[in-house]
């Protein structure tokens, strides 16, 4: 059976919490207490403490050097912050859903910022401040991404949920400044850690090349950027192959068939209980797919969705929303193959 991973559990009736995001000034570069350069393999005496030089013009973002929590980044672009509680964040890249593969810019969302290539390098790093007991999102970009567009905006809030004034999506202009030779940085105040078992109060941060409005995610104009959101607070997630009386979502085994020529993914309900199509939603990158499940979905039923902007490593997700759209639980995810 396919392992099901709970990404977010959102209850719209829960009270709002968290601090509304606002753009802050770019903090000054830091060095160690002796004033020594902390880079490896670099003779650059001005290298900030949050960058490591891995080659000439290539830098790795060192979030551990500036965060008050021990941090580790996995190959899956999941970052874990130790502490009480542990907080896990997950990254996505954002591409406009109707952009043809031939015209899609090459975007690298990775802690390694390469200023020597033609790829648009971008990374969002959540940084924890123990004194303030909150998070700041540090955005890093190379000059290729920075100079390719006139507009840069953070969008912060809860997407695809009912109206809630305290957690509504808001746009903030990004004040990039050159942080180091060819590397640009901007910051956004995120707010407090969501409470354990309270990810319904969490917000997602997107950095895009578009201004936010209510139709931004549905518009045909170019959307290119990255997103980050907390996906777990507290103990390691349980095994969702096992039934949980507190988990209202069905345990369903899906399979996926990707057609790279047609740019479609066929989802097959392989095993598990029937469910109502209007209780789930199929998502790709920053929005919903045009085709959605409907009626009663039983084993053997299939749904083919178009993913015209699909690139390797991007994900299609199936989320359980519930009869009243009161939940957000990922039933399964499919990664576009190489």
Describe the protein:
This protein has 338 residues and is mainly β. It has two domains: 22-233, no CATH class; 253-335, Sandwich (Immunoglobulin-like). It is built from one helix and 25 strands. The strands form six sheets. The protein has a seven-stranded antiparallel β-sheet, with no helix packed on it. Strands 1, 7, 9, 10, 13 and 14 form a six-stranded mixed β-sheet that branches. A four-stranded antiparallel β-sheet has the order 21-20-24-25, with no helix packed on it. A hairpin with a 4-residue loop joins strand 17 and strand 18 (264-271). The longest helix has 5 residues, at 143-147. It is globular, with a radius of gyration of 20 Å. The relative contact order is 0.19. Residues 19-53 are annotated as: Disordered.
Largest sheet: 7 strands, antiparallel
- Average pLDDT confidence is 79
Q: What is the string of helix and strand elements?
A: EEEEEEEEEEHEEEEEEEEEEEEEEE
The total domain count is: 2
Radius of gyration, whole Å: 20 Å
Q: Which percent bin holds the helix content?
A: under 10%
**Per the principal axes of the C-alpha atoms, what is the gross shape?**
globular
Strand order of the largest sheet: 4-5-6-16-15-11-12
| pLDDT < 50 stretches | 1-22, 24-42, 97-101, 238-244
Number of strands: 25
The number of helical elements comes to 1
Give the termini separation: 23 Å
DSSP strand content: 35-45%
Query: What structural category do the secondary elements indicate?
Result: mainly beta
């Amino acid at each position: 059976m396919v392992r099901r991973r709970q990404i977010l559990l959102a209850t719209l009736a829960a009270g709002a919490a968290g601090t509304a995001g606002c753009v802050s000034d770019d903090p000054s570069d830091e060095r160690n207490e002796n004033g020594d350069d902390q880079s490896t393999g670099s003779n650059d005496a001005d290298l900030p403490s949050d960058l490591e030089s891995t080659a000439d013009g290539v830098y790795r973002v060192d979030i551990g050097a500036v965060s008050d929590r021990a941090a580790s980044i996995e190959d899956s672009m999941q970052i874990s912050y130790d502490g009480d509680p542990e907080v896990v964040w997950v990254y996505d890249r954002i591409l406009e859903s109707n952009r043809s593969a031939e015209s899609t810019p090459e975007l690298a969302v990775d802690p390694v910022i390469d200023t020597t290539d033609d790829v648009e390098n971008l990374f969002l790093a959540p940084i924890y401040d123990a004194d303030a007991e909150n998070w700041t999102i540090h955005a890093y970009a190379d000059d290729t991404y920075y100079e390719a567009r006139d507009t840069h905006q953070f969008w912060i809030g809860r997407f695809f949920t009912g109206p809630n004034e305290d957690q509504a999506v808001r746009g903030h202009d990004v004040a990039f400044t050159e942080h180091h030779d060819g590397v640009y940085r901007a910051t956004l105040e995120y707010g407090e850690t969501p409470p354990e078992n309270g990810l319904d109060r969490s917000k997602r941060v997107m950095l895009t090349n578009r201004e936010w409005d209510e139709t931004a995610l549905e518009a045909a104009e170019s959307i290119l950027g990255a997103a980050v959101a907390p996906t777990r607070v507290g103990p390691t997630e349980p095994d969702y192959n096992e039934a949980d009386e507190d988990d209202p979502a069905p345990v369903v085994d899906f399979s996926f068939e990707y057609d790279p020529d047609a740019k479609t993914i066929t989802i097959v309900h392989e095993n598990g209980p029937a469910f109502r199509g209007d209780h789930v939603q199929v998502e790709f990158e920053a929005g919903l797919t045009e085709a959605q499940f409907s009626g009663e979905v039983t084993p053997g039923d299939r749904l083919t969705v178009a993913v015209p902007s699909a690139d390797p490593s991007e994900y299609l997700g199936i989320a359980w929303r519930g009869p009243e759209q009161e939940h957000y639980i990922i039933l399964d995810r499919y990664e576009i193959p190489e």
